[in-house]
Specification:
Blueprint lengths: L1 H18 L12 H7 L18 H14 L5 H14 L24 H14 L7 H10 L1 H8 L2 H4 L2 H9 L2 H8 L3 H12 L5 H13 L3
Helix pairs in contact: 2-3, 4-10, 4-12, 5-7, 6-7, 10-11
The structure holds 2-acetamido-2-deoxy-beta-D-glucopyranose.
């Protein structure tokens, strides 16, 4: 009886699996050890040039997991790409403010530009009930300037979620499918056509390291 039930499930399951356009849900949670495997420097903040900006892998892991959950980022390839971008842009989580060259209001863990930090702050104020950011605060900060707008979204909770927000709200479906499939072409297209940056060896080598883990 058991065996029969197994075959029934298997035969129903197979065509569904083959038809699936994206890899299945990655239910495992990212751990600090996974982050350290990708970026060994994230193990400590001891030598951080701006200690107040630094987060260790242990600090970061729960916030990154929360961001995946909030923005429905379930495919391993997509999770890996977002984490690669954040680790690259923040120098293994040593920074959350742009210092080189030092664009005022540019920051968060994916070094989002000021225009998008404002959009992000508005989005959070309007769409997340307990975001801790009110529309009034966003308007006040906007009047004061981009540094104040960045400060609204640059705590742990939201600075580790901006890359996920950006992908979910500012990129199109083709980009999201390309990341989920974790092809190098998908990664390149994400960088050039949505993030608006260039493909470099440094960026791609961290992505390759992450993809090589195959799962968390
Ligand atoms: C709230 O979320 C929806 C869906 O992403 C979006 O279209 C809308 O612009 C957001 N509101 C603000 C103020 O950003």
């Amino acid at each position: 009886m058991r065996l029969k039930a197994f075959f029934v499930i298997f035969s129903l399951g197979l065509p569904v699996y083959m038809a699936a356009p994206v890899p299945p849900c990655n239910v495992a949670r990212l751990t600090s050890a996974d982050i350290i495997a990708m970026a060994p420097k994230a193990s400590s903040c001891a030598a951080a040039p701006f200690p107040s900006e630094c987060a260790t892998a242990t600090d970061a892991a729960p916030w990154v997991n929360m961001a995946y959950h909030l923005f429905d980022i379930h495919a391993f390839g997509t999770q890996a790409a977002l984490l690669s971008l954040m680790l690259y842009e923040s120098g293994s989580f040593k920074y959350d403010i742009n210092h080189y060259p030092g664009v005022p209001g540019q920051g968060t863990r994916n070094m989002q530009t000021p225009v998008f930090n404002l959009k992000y702050a508005r989005w959070l104020a309007a769409n997340v009930t307990d975001s801790g950011i009110s529309m009034q605060q966003v308007e006040d900060a906007e009047t004061e300037g981009p540094v104040q707008v960045l400060a609204l979204v640059n705590g742990d909770r939201w600075s580790f979620a901006s890359a996920a927000w950006f992908l979910a709200t500012q990129c199109d479906e083709v980009i999201r499918l390309g990341l989920a499939a974790y092809t190098e072409q998908g990664w390149n297209t994400y960088l050039t056509e949505c993030v608006g940056t260039t493909v470099t060896d440094d960026r791609t080598s961290i992505w390759k390291k992450t993809i090589a883990l195959e799962k968390w």
